[in-house]
Design a protein that fits this description.
Blueprint: E1 7-9, H1 19-36, H2 44-47, H3 52-59, H4 67-77, H5 82-97, H6 102-108, E2 111-116, H7 127-137, H8 144-148, E3 164-170, H9 171-175, H10 181-195, E4 200-205, E5 219-225, E6 228-233, E7 241-243, H11 246-262, H12 266-281
Parallel strand pairs: 1-7, 2-3, 3-4
Antiparallel strand pairs: 2-5, 5-6, 6-7
Helix pairs in contact: 1-5, 4-5, 10-12
């Protein structure tokens, strides 16, 4: 998969370890916890998802399992999150050692929280919206293929199942025009469709927020387990930065929750997005490349009860 290469700010020094050693340690932890719980490899309760041969490969460090399998083993063995944390630690460290791009980290994350002050981040972008953003940012670039390529992070399925996604954006991202009105209407429709799914939440911060916690610097938080997260800070040009320092990760997590606290509720944000779509699509066709003028409906940007 093609994606952005990332610089990283780690929580400590030291050179890169053998990625296999991370999974050997994880496998040893699985074997230890399983033995303590007196669960036999041939136990039929494990055969539904994990055959004994697969379990043997995990415990020997020859197989790095997906997150859903680690969570399954943790639940079946009764490890109370110990194996999930061990898997998350091994997964993050192995990806860092491989100098993986951000798309691979996102593929394995169980929860992703996005904040962007001025635009909808990928993967919440239509191709036309992404193209308009990149062409505006790098008009002199000759590599149109790279400019038009958006991060491939499926909104419906990632890995074995959908992760939990939460997006917080400023109202300016909703109101501004990127490309043209049709591009924006289609873009907002994509966000509305995403927000209608159970595992995806979208929140809008009103423009009239007096003390905005963060008016710049987009970032996203990737959670692999309750105790293992990383931060990704995208760059306007070139590679973004991965942060693993625990204090910085905790600070970004607190900041995100503060931003979410300043935003409108999920249902209200969804209504505002729909009203903005109606406003843009009710404009005369002549303004959006249509064949002729049509009646313009008087649709307010937001309801009278809530103003952006």
């Amino acid at each position: 998969m093609t994606g952005e290469r990332t610089a990283r700010t780690a929580g400590g020094g030291g050179g890169a370890a053998d990625p296999g050693s991370h999974w050997e340690r994880f496998g040893a932890r699985v074997r230890q916890v399983r033995t303590q719980a007196d669960v036999d490899p041939d136990d039929l309760t494990l055969r539904e998802v994990c055959e004994p041969t697969t379990l043997a490969a995990i415990e020997s460090g020859e197989y790095d399992p997906p997150g859903h399998l680690a969570r399954y083993l943790d639940s079946r063995i009764g490890a109370q999150g110990v194996l999930v944390d061990a898997w998350a630690r091994a997964r993050i460290q192995s990806l860092l050692d491989e100098d993986a791009d951000i798309s691979r980290f996102q593929h394995h994350a169980h929860q992703i929280r996005f904040f962007d002050p001025g635009a909808f981040p990928s993967p919440f972008r239509t191709p036309a919206y992404a193209r308009a953003l990149t062409l505006g940012a790098q008009p002199l670039s000759n590599d149109r293929t790279e400019l038009h390529r958006a991060e491939r992070v499926p909104l419906t399925l990632m890995g074995s199942g959908p992760p939990h996604l939460c997006l917080v954006v400023n109202a300016s991202a909703v109101r501004q025009t990127v490309g043209d009105s049709r591009t924006m209407a289609d873009q907002l429709s994509l966000v509305v469709e995403a927000a209608g799914r159970e595992h995806i939440a979208v929140h809008v911060i009103p423009e009239q927020t007096d003390l905005h916690p963060c008016r710049s610097s987009a970032f996203r938080l990737l959670s692999f387990s309750p105790h293992h997260q990383i931060v990704y800070v995208p760059a306007p040009c070139g590679s973004g930065q991965i942060i693993t320092n625990p204090e910085q990760v905790a600070a970004h997590s607190d900041l995100f929750e503060t931003l979410k606290g300043e935003s409108l509720p999920r249902s209200t944000s969804l209504r505002l997005l729909k009203e903005e779509i109606d406003r843009r699509r009710s404009r005369p066709k002549a303004l959006t490349g249509g064949d002729g003028p049509s009646q313009t409906l008087d649709v307010p940007l937001v309801s009278e009860a809530v103003r952006l």
